[in-house]
Amino acid sequence: MVVTLTGIFALSGANCPNMVRPTAPLLPRVLPPSPTLDQVIQVVNGNNSQIQTFWTDRATISGAGFPALRASLAFQRPKFFRMQAVSGLTGPEVDLGSNPDFFWFWIRRSEPSAIYYCRHDQFATSPARYSIPVQPDWLIEALGVTELDPNLPHQGPFPLQGDQLEVRTIRETPDGPVTKVTILDGSQGWVLEQNIYNAQGLLLASAVASQHRRDPLSGLVMPGVVVVNCPTAQFSMRIDLGAVQINRLSGNPAELWNIPTIQGVPAVNLAQPNQQPLAAQPAGIMPMPQGRP
User: Is residue 273 part of a domain?
Assistant: First the structure.
């Protein structure tokens, strides 16, 4: 069962769209020319920590091997996330989400068809982690709301060409330490690129952000386009966020943050892939699996 996950995440193909490093418009500098680490953390977190929610129903996801899909995205701290994508010809194509207890995903073209779900605290020891090379909340970070945790060991900032800065962060995971390399705009402190490497230096995941926009009501900044790439899973995807509303969440929380059900599609617990799947139910909201607080 778990072996099929690699095929699921290969839906968008192995080739990543060409990545062009974004450049900031001419704005007054927020960071000094040679900032300290504390100054960088203050600027990055000063913007991103204030993004408590965001929502858009005008997004587009695309990749090699499948047409562009209309999508809606919603986020609420700490781990509430939902992305749903539809095709004008076939209807719903993708549904993935997260709440503080569970994450889930469904892709129409996966075989066998199922809603795969798992508790966050069980994912690290589940067989699925070998087929999904990064933590599920990586996508939330990739969309530009990541912060630089002052309690983690950081190196830098190191100056790069084009008025950019590099910060390296060591993170401990169940599979050993990983290094996250964050590339920042040296003037505004915007997160331009995030790369995660394992202890052997293998690139596990990357996210390149561009077309940053300032929300007219909150004054906060988010990227307009994010390209996510997971080489080991042969997965790449471009997300055009469209008109994002920051701190103005729309939608019914009972529908946004619960595992959905799809007519005729069973639910499979990734922590127990050999267990009998939950029976397919009428479309709606799935009753929380056993263990839900």
Answer: yes
